[in-house]
Queue: 2 jobs
Job 1
Amino acid sequence: MGVLTEFLKGLKVTGATMIGTIFGNELVTTQYPKEKRKKPQRFHGRHVLNRYPDGMEKCIGCELCAGVCPAKCIYVRGKDNDPDNPISPGERYGYVYEINMLRCIFCGLCVEACPTEAITMTSLFEFSTTNRDDAIYTRETLLMDEQGNVPHMFPDDPLIDENELLTADGWVRATAPSGVAAYEGVQMWQSTPGPADWSPEPSQEEIDSRSSQEHEDG
Ligand code: SF4
Ligand code: SF4
């Protein structure tokens, strides 16, 4: 008898929930993509590379983001700024910047590691692709323009709300993954589209030898 009572009690709860759902009082279904739920402030979506209000790029090519990335999906190569025409306020700027979104786990550690808040995450998560190449985001894809607009690889995608790319969340060496010497000078993403000079950064020995040669030449 006790079991039957408990069973009926359970059935009553299930029935009440079912009726509430059918008549719309307790609907939890969101008609995505026509309707979108408001995302939490700290939502970790697609990355963006930011600029200062004067147009200078915030990235100084320090590679801290690449170093901290647990998925090893960031590739950065810095380049010295031309003093007469600097790209960033630092000594260097992010000459090559790539994120392999297929590897990214959206942990946000790159954002936390960045000393200049150059890399941030937005609220946009609609950026699925049909091929692997498109999942590798280059500097050209990530960098906001001088007016502060953030590009989307597929601007005609009906699923996207481009305003989400303007919503930043509330708030490590790829040239050699994990610092493995065997990768020094090896191009990481062989099929990356977009213009770039893929010449390897010189090794420390090469830099040292050049400076001592220059010192001797004097
Ligand atoms: S969010 Fe995490 S996994 Fe993705 S690029 Fe940043 S550090 Fe790497
Ligand atoms: S940590 Fe920031 S400044 Fe350094 S390379 Fe990454 S994005 Fe650029």
Job 2
Amino acid sequence: MKFRLTGKIRKILARDKKVILTTTRGDVPFVASHGDGDFIYDVSENKFIDFSTLISVYNFGVNSTKASREAAKRQIDKLGHAAFTDYYAELPVEFAENLMKMFPDGFGKVFFSNSGTEANEAAIKYSKLFTKRQYTLAFYGAFHGRTYGSLSLTASKTAQREHFGPFNSTVHTPYAYCYRCPFGKEYPSCGMACLDHIKKFALGKDVSGKEVAAVFMEPVQGEGGYIVPPKEFVRGVKEIAQDNGMLFVSDEVQAGYMRTGKFLALDNFGVKADIYSLAKAAGAGLPLGLTVVRNSLGDVPEGAHSNTFGGNLVAVAAGNEQLKYVLKNRQSLEDQTKSKGRYMMDRLNEMKERYEIMGDVRGLGMMIGVEFVKDKKSKDPAPKERDDVTVEAFNNGLLMLPCGLSTLRIIPPVTIAQKNLEEGMDILEAAINKVNKKS
Ligand SMILES: Cc1ncc(COP(=O)(O)O)c(C=O)c1O
């Protein structure tokens, strides 16, 4: 279906411009109205296949499951806010009990918040509290949020940090971005220079490993460009953390909740974290952040960390029904994610052979990125071509989002029907074909 830019859309965009502060919007005039499952519609009934999951939120289809919506509706009439950090309520306890069924043995406690950045703020404070150390270690390209603690860990784009320093005490080190290896090497002959760098420089010159409370890692870098590291890298970082007595925090805000074929993305690497942070998909479309702590770390002293809206009953009601759905269908969701992910990767890799502007295709499960380049030899980033592909696909009924410098994220709901997935891939291929011809 061809997109129609109507007067109604134009008017809302003009009103928005007057009263809404600028955020991170790109080039597509998508004005959301309603949606269900694989599709999202705008205010003029333009229909889109959703390959954005509205920024990694609707992993189980637009507007999540009917049961989660109904639970939220019931709960809002009963009681929305219970001051759960000051009093008690059963629903967040039930949610936590269900959540722990998705976690490895030895995990039993959660802190509720409202976003990914808050989930990471809690993880920063807890890791400092548990270790009595003050530094954190994070990666170039990382995105952990935009409030001060998590922004100190974030090092994806300078625009996100410009004018906001000084930051919290964080040391950054290169991630295993093998397509553009920061050390000019190639995997696997590189000898894992990125791990060496941590030992020799980050912890050898910048700060002593004995002073680092935790290393924060996205198992797959999201906003930074959908970068899937080799297993060896993740395992090596875990080893370094263990050797230095620092905690390992897995930021699963974007990669978690089944996106990669496992509930926890870190499980793909055979590594366990000490603290996990989740958000985005957790609330079935409502704001819900989660910080999950390994039992052996103990509890937090009273008054050390809390908030007002954590455990909000409406968000938790929706999230709990969605979680029950995930628990019931866990195996099927894992299988679907793997097989649909394979289909997408095969098709994209085959397209890469034909289109010069497709530099790299990478992914884990259904968390897939295509990095656009001017040409395969120079590998010069091609953000304009990436944006042109996004707009062309949008004009033909496919919704997607960018990431990194010139990467497109391809993240349909893991529950998408094969037919709609194939139609979306056809639209994407036609868009790439058109832009490739012009470049
Ligand atoms: C990996 C990761 N961590 C944290 C965040 C921050 O989440 P929020 O925008 O809910 O604060 C994001 C958001 O994109 C993310 O991708």
